[in-house]
Design a protein that fits this description.
75% helix; 280 residues; mainly alpha
Length: 280
Amino acid sequence: MLEWWESVILGIVEGVTEFLPVSSTGHLTVVEKLMGLPIDDASVTAYTAIIQVGAMIASIVYFWKDIVRIATAWFAGLRDVEKRGNDFRLGWAVIVGFATTAVVALALRDLIEGPLRSLWFVAGGLIGWSFVMFAGDRVGKQTRGEDSITWKDGLLLGLIQSISLIPGVSRSGATISGALFMGIDRVSATRMSFFLGIPTLIAAGTLQAISAAPAIAAPGGVGWLATIIGTVVSFVVAYVSIAWLLKFVATNNFTAFVIYRIVLAAIIVVLLLTNVVSPI
């Protein structure tokens, strides 16, 4: 179903958009439709989730020192009350946030992989959440740093991250906006989005790999070679994207992303209304 060069293109799209607040799932859905792929097919749905693992591995490599520091502090805090500092609390925030999103995702799995894959939902998610991002960027006080984040923040961010199950909203866009509304500064909000995304998307990709392996390998399926190519490409491109985004948010707001999202949504609507692509 999928040629190697098509998988390279999809891997690039995933790597570029996974961590930018523009909806990687929305972009992949549009590109897959333009390639003539059936986006509601089990193997295509699985492929889309699995190549995200490549981007997540890139974030693990990039933030490895932070991950080790937080994990070490968390385990140390479990053993010794006196060692329960900022990193211990941040570790709990990530765990609680991931668990919250996982519960919601499992409960709504059939809906996510079915009707919500429609490009109408993608366009709606892009436009609707753009206003939330714009407001968060302007209203958020940005007085809190990473050292102030607690499990309560993780719980709220996990719930907010669940909203990104709607294609077009953007996982990073949801968590970053939510953190901004909570008064967390832009760089810390972006880093927290990465920390929450690592376990969330690794779990989603692994689950899809296990449950949909037969569909990927079946005649007419995407195929494991194409899936592996897409995953590797997404890893390489995502690593570069992470470095760029962290530098960008240090000195810029998210207005450019908001404009891009609205323009992309308008293009999708035009493609749908002119029957260039079908919703599903």
